[in-house]
Amino acid sequence: KSCQKPVDKYIEYDPVIILINAVLCKAQAYRHILFNTKINIHGKLCIFCLLCEAYLRWLQLQDSSQNTDPDDLIRYAKEWDFYRMFGIASLEQTSFFIGIFITLWWMTPEMLKRKSDFILLLKALLLSTYGKLLLIPAVIWEHDYTPLCLAFIKVFVLISNSQAIRVTLNLNRILPWFAIFFGLLLENGVVCLFQKMGWDV
């Protein structure tokens, strides 16, 4: 019943085909991954994506200092800026998820009655942030179009989040985007708060 078909066709498919269809944001592939597989990498994937995001921010912060002295770079690597960036990225993602949960709970309280519903939606959102792994090649193959690549990665992650919400709660296309919009508002509010505190975000 989760796949809304007589049979889940992805049962017979190779994992590579399933992954390609998930990258293409096909709803049935998401249903298969969320309901018919036993993937238990949500926490590890979340930490790894946050580390990638923190590294990218730390690298941009390091580039803004424009110091070429090797001793200074070694000293800079020992500082706590990377951990601060990891903490900021974690708080931003948490506020984004909280914004989504508040909106969905307010708009469709019948969908999120049980604790298991919240846990399933959280797992779906964590899995759908896999697009942040594309930050690694964006950093490695640094070129003039890096800001454009980062914008595309952000849009891809938001589309994946929308599909995850839609598949998990069996909603139409509009409500997940409304929840994501509110989550982005809350995330940007956290960023503005950090900037008012004088932190480099």
What would you note in describing this structure?
The structure is a single chain. By secondary structure, this protein is mainly α. The chain is built from 9 helices and no strands. It starts with 14 loop residues before the first helix and ends in a 5-residue tail after the last helix. Helix 1 crosses helix 2 (27-35), helix 3 packs across helix 5 (81-107) and helix 5 (81-107) packs antiparallel against helix 9. The relative contact order is 0.13. It has helices at 15-23, 27-35, 42-65, 70-77, 81-107, 115-127, 135-140, 146-169, 174-196. The radius of gyration is 19 Å and the shape is globular. The chain has one domain (42-197). The chain is 71% helix and 0% strand. The model has no long low-confidence stretch (mean pLDDT 81). Its main location: endoplasmic reticulum. One of its GO terms (biological process) is regulation of plasma membrane sterol distribution. This is Protein ARV.
Write the layout of secondary structure elements.
Elements: H1 15-23, H2 27-35, H3 42-65, H4 70-77, H5 81-107, H6 115-127, H7 135-140, H8 146-169, H9 174-196
Helix pairs in contact: 1-2, 2-8, 3-5, 3-6, 5-9, 6-8, 8-9
GO cellular component, one term: Golgi apparatus
Subcellular location: Endoplasmic reticulum membrane
Organism: Phainopepla nitens (Phainopepla)
